């Protein structure tokens, strides 16, 4: 029997009777799926509707024409064989922490900028709440994950705004090729009508169901390292569709660039210490490596970081 995609009602955490089973559901999702979907997460539906409406308008006004030109220039509409080096997506990036670049992005209208700023603030609070729930499930002290992510300037937090327009050859061109996310915790606000996001579980590609006003959470490579493999980052991809334009707003709550990442000592057993599966590294070094290897398996990335680790002695970073 196929188990159903984990959907977590965050409001049940305030209810003594239901809290235990909700925490178990989150733990099971982190161990066995790497993904779960949140409802009643505390972000107002009105704000989500505004963000969706303005994102779709911005795409139509500022991005659609550019995307069509790119497709024409690369001859993508007429491809005959599988395309392995390009994704059928139109994207731009917003950085929120440690410093925001929102004022530098051209063609963002004031109401859109304002909505995205408010949305990012809400997601940041939600990410920190979730990290503490993970700490509770892992038996780590409250704040452990947030502090590990902190580095000297706080976490890195940014948003990738994507649209996946209708694609004439979805069997040959992926919306986004399979990968695991490099960072920490990913919070995704996705289209509730057009699907396309899939994750790999037990050798099968499974759809992440579109649900109105939900936030999809998935775990990045850094949480796999810090939990010493108890929680895993999972391969996922986006399948392009022949009709419908899928909106995807993915926010990445990641460690600061100089944060030192390593398995939490409380989660390292004698055996795993001897076999030392996961490396210790500075987050920025991992990101440099990831940039060229995003669409490849994560294990060689961890191995490469181990090699770097053995040649460089990491000084402990003082955190206040």
UniProtKB/TrEMBL annotation:
Keywords: Coiled coil, Ethylene biosynthesis, Iron, Metal-binding, Oxidoreductase, Vitamin C. GO terms for molecular function: 1-aminocyclopropane-1-carboxylate oxidase activity; L-ascorbic acid binding; metal ion binding. Residues 155-255 form the Fe2OG dioxygenase domain. It comes from the Eukaryota. InterPro entries: DIOX_N (IPR026992), IPNS-like_FE2OG_OXY (IPR044861), IPNS-like_sf (IPR027443), Oxoglu/Fe-dep_dioxygenase_dom (IPR005123), Plant_2OG-oxidoreductases (IPR050295). Pathway: Alkene biosynthesis; ethylene biosynthesis via S-adenosyl-L-methionine; ethylene from S-adenosyl-L-methionine: step 2/2. GO terms for biological process: cellular response to fatty acid; ethylene biosynthetic process. Its EC number is 1.14.17.4. Residues 109-136 form a coiled coil. The keyword Cell division does not apply. Pfam families: 2OG-FeII_Oxy (PF03171), DIOX_N (PF14226). The keyword Iron applies. PANTHER family: OXOGLUTARATE/IRON-DEPENDENT DIOXYGENASE (PTHR47991). Belongs to the iron/ascorbate-dependent oxidoreductase family. This is aminocyclopropanecarboxylate oxidase. It comes from Acer negundo (Box elder).
